[in-house]
Design a protein that fits this description.
mainly beta, 14 strands
Length: 194
């Protein structure tokens, strides 16, 4: 009920409604067990939700997640947005997570000069090969990591996609009176070039 195809877009909707003892509903879609990838260029064109407590993400987990667990399986966040207070609604994050005697992470952000990611579609990309993962927003690189170290072996395995809008959590905090519902993330395409 929170995911539809509308005008050619995949639309995920976060709603303020009671369900299963929670105050909000949303969707999380994944390609686990169906499609997985290693290396290449990945482009996702999407329009993002906004507002305090809204946490959309276009990300990937290692296909070995069921046997290895997180963070050992590795995580590649093509894009996360932590909504709220104007600045956050125009800032995205690209990050990797892995296990290095515990949770390790490395990331950076990219901000629009004005407006917010809700205003129009943008293309969120990674270029991933045997040596590096590079993050781009609208074809402009804003982050890179060298993955040649033995401690980063998780990033030389197959990964599957996850698309979701989380509501609340430690990083964004909870929605407040300024948060507008429903919130949508519209995905035009995911393209993988290998």
């Amino acid at each position: 009920e929170n995911t539809i195809i509308e005008n050619g877009y995949l639309v995920i909707t976060a709603k303020e409604e009671s369900y299963g003892g929670q105050n909000y509903t949303s969707s999380r879609l994944k390609t686990q067990g169906n499609q997985f990838f290693k290396y290449g260029r990945i482009d996702i064109r999407a329009k993002l939700p906004y507002g305090q407590g809204i946490w959309p993400a276009l990300w990937m987990l290692g296909e070995n997640f069921p046997s290895t667990g997180w963070p050992g399986c590795g995580e590649i966040d093509l894009m996360e947005l932590i909504g709220g207070n104007g600045y956050n609604d125009r800032t995205i994050y690209g990050t990797v997570h892995w296990d290095e005697n515990g949770h390790a992470q490395y990331g950076n952000s990219s901000s629009l000069p004005s407006g917010k990611y809700y205003d129009e579609f943008h293309v969120f990309s990674i270029v991933w090969d045997q040596s590096y993962i590079r993050w781009l927003r609208d074809d402009v690189q804003y982050h890179i990591i060298d993955i040649t170290g033995s401690n980063l072996s998780a990033f030389h395995e197959n990964f599957f996609f996850i698309l979701n809008i989380a509501v609340g959590g430690n990083w964004p905090g909870s929605p407040d009176n300024s948060t507008v519902f429903p919130q949508i993330m519209a995905v035009d395409y995911i393209r993988v070039f290998q």
